[in-house]
Amino acid sequence: MRLIKFMFCVPFAVLSLAVVSPLYAQSAGTVAKVNGVAIPQARLDLMVKAAVAQGQPDTNEMRNALRENLIAEEILAQEAVKKGLDRDPEVVTQIELARQAVLIRAFQADYIRNNTISDAELRKEYEAVKSQMGDKEYKARHILVETEKEAKDLVAMLKKGGSFEKLASERSIDSGSRDNGGELGWSPSAVYVKPFADALRNLKKGELTSQPVQTTFGWHIIQLDDVRAAVPPTFEEVKQNMQQRVLQRNFAELVESLRKKAKVQ
Q1: Burial class (CB in 10 A: 0-12, 13-18, 19+), 196
Q2: Nearest C-alpha neighbor of 211 from the set 249, 92, 110, 203
Q3: pLDDT, position 38
Q4: Confidence of residue 134 (pLDDT cuts 50, 70, 90)
Q5: What CA–CA distance (Å, rounded) separates 42 from 70?
Q6: CA-to-CA distance for 213 and 155, rounded, in angstroms?
Q7: What pLDDT was estimated at residue 28?
Q8: Which DSSP symbol is given to 229?
Q9: Distance CA 74, CA 42 (A)
């Protein structure tokens, strides 16, 4: 369950600085011929570059192993064609989807290469994110349940002296914090969804929300354990994340503009 929103860390699923372009220069020659069908050297070169990018050393042994894989794959592909599997509608669709995926990755890689983000823009983004975080960090814990009634019952139990940690471990549906007595650790309020953040900022150290707080996750009982001055990471520590954040936003805007221009019937 993700109660926390993005701040300085970016899960960059769509666009990544680590994208490797498939558009490498074509190497001359062939690796081997299988039943008269040539396996291009460029295919092996591409696989070698991908393996090296993942940390494998470029050795003769590695190249020979990849060559054998290519030969085996060509043999199997030829057998599939002999059986007419290349004409199977589902297989045809899978091939079309694979081709589309390669083209999309190539487009993303091309976008990254040709859209450098300046340090000035990155620093502006950094300052904007830092200002959103505020000047305080909160150490909180919560109990998350599905219904308001259950939440109110828990509030009543806590006001009568019930153990927050015990009730969290027994009743909370948040598996990420349940085993730690509902503890969420130190975070600025801005990393939480708004209703949770608003309630947290209104608590004093040691206080408990008098009424359950509703979010899209369910109903929360929140307890503030401590407050301290926030110490944000330095620009250099999060520079790459800022770059990914800006690239992701700019790329999303490009996709949206292309979507608007496209003729969709």
Answers
A1: buried
A2: 203
A3: 95
A4: confident
A5: 12
A6: 11
A7: 62
A8: E
A9: 15
